[in-house]
Specification:
Keywords: Membrane, Transmembrane, Transmembrane helix. This protein is an all-alpha fold. It is about 80% helix and about 0% strand. It has 5 helices and no strands. α1 crosses α5. The radius of gyration is 17 Å and the shape is elongated. The mean pLDDT is about 85.
Length: about 130
């Protein structure tokens, strides 16, 4: 999770920070990780139900994922509150090739999580004939 934090922080500060809004990237990193964790959790639940219970799925209301994101944000904020400076310093001391590998693997994990999220949505739609 620390490498995922580093990748999102690096992406935010290098690519998105062009707007110069003077806001902290910590909120965006913690919220991004919370959203990815929620997407992964609900994708696994839906995928398990589709495969093992012949196309059954849970019809979530909008509040369950939002509450899950809020709870995971609280956990991530508490976890990274005192660790973020040490974590970033430790990773920034590593050679550039190691940082590229960290960014590549974390980006791959992010893409696979988003793909799994959309794939389970596709499976739900095709199995239930929406």
């Amino acid at each position: 999770m620390k490498y995922l934090y580093f990748t999102i922080h690096n992406f935010y500060t290098k690519k998105i920070k062009i707007q110069r809004l003077n806001d902290s990237p910590d909120f965006y990193c913690e919220m991004g990780i919370s959203i990815l964790e929620t997407m992964f959790l609900f994708s696994l639940i839906d995928y398990y139900l589709i495969l093992n219970f012949s196309g059954e799925y849970i019809d979530y209301s909008k509040w369950i994922p939002l509450m899950t994101i809020a709870a995971l944000y609280g956990i991530n904020h508490y976890y990274f509150k005192n660790r973020k400076e040490k974590l970033l310093e430790k990773i920034l001391k590593k050679p550039n090739s190691t940082k590229r590998v960290i960014n590549s693997i974390s980006s791959l994990i992010i893409l696979l999580t988003v793909f799994l999220f959309f794939y389970t949505g596709y499976l739900i739609r095709t199995n239930n004939g929406f």
